[in-house]
Each structure stands twice: as C-alpha cells, then as structure tokens.
Write the structure tokens for this entry.
Amino acid sequence: MKINGEKNIETVLFPNNTMRIEPQEDDDIEKIESIKYHFGKIMEALGLNLDDPSLQKTPERVAKMYVNDVFKGLNKTNSPKISFFKNTSGYQEMILVDNITLYSYCEHHFVPFFGKAAVAYIPKDRVIGLSKINRIVQFVASKPQIQERLTMEIGEKFKELLKTEDIAIYIEANHLCVASRGVKDDNSMTTTTFFGGKFRKNKMKNRFLTSIHK
C-alpha cells in the first residue's frame, strides 16, 4: 500500500498488543450489567422513579455509553491501528495538526471537559498518517482524565510512536465541573502544553504557538 508515493513500512498498535483483538463480548456485557445495576441504585437514591417510561432505560443507556463510547480508552483492545511511512522526502520541518476535537471526562466529578488540541512533530525516519494523530488524541482522551495528565500522556505517546523527542502538544478545554457546579463559570478555559526536544527551545516553541488557532 502506498500513500503519497510513500511505502507503508510498519503497522503497530499500542503497547502489549501484537494483533488487533476485538473486545471480549462477555466482558463488555458483564461491565454493562454491573454499571446498569449500580447506576439504577444511584437514581433510586436520588428519589427518581425508575418506572417512569422516560427513565426506565436510562441505567442501561448510561452503562452502554460508558463501556462502548466515552470510556472506551480504558480497554486497550480498542486502541487504534497506526500506520507509519518512510520519510523518503527527508522532510525535517514541523508537521502540525491543529483544531483536533477533544472530548474527555473529568475524573474528579465524572462530567465532561472538551475543547481543541494541536499536535506537532519534527519527523526523523518516519511519518504518521495524519488522521491517525486525531485518533490517538481521541483514544487517550476516552477515559476519566485530568487535563494535565492527558496532555503529558499524548506527548509521551507520540514520542514513543514517532521515535523522536521533537513533539509539541497544546490543549485548550472547557470544564463542565467548573461551568456547571461550584464557581459556575462557563467562560473560563484551561490551557496545557507539552514540549519535547527542539520544541523546548524558544524559537520552535514560539513558532508552534503562533501557528495554532487559539
């Protein structure tokens, strides 16, 4: 397979995976049933009527959402398949993917935080399919997180996959735990960054920061 004239040289998964494995259906069913039961108990404790037609299916909906969607990053078998290509052109400038949609859940209150991410790297021997950058960001975000650790995990993952220290990450997010409770400020945004290798130097750091949409 060739993309833009470059031969696909390697396909890998996240660590500890040697092949693509579909999630264990029995395990997923067990998780869904457990979450369904306990979330129903939470609703009952809140005084909600589970016999109400509008609420009857809510515990099951929440359970399926947690297992199959918003927390799928907890299951390594859901990790995206990643393709690399030889850097045959010898490209040594910054590659930037900006405005990546980011959606995660605050591990302190289990409510969403969401925003945009930017990922940049300077390639050495390999480059990565552009859409795979988005998939990696989305996968790492698909579990209970705090933004600081999420930013570092994304940076370290790209360092590992691309075999380079020259990685830069920018995340700007709105946290519903701030907007919907406590101080109830829905205008504030939280920004976190990760800089490795050449991006630690002011010239490249500033080039990255002035290139992204904020």
In short: The radius of gyration is 20 Å. Strands lie at 2-3, 6-12, 82-86, 95-106, 112-121, 126-128, 144-145, 167-175, 190-195. Residues 1-23 have pLDDT under 50 and may be disordered.
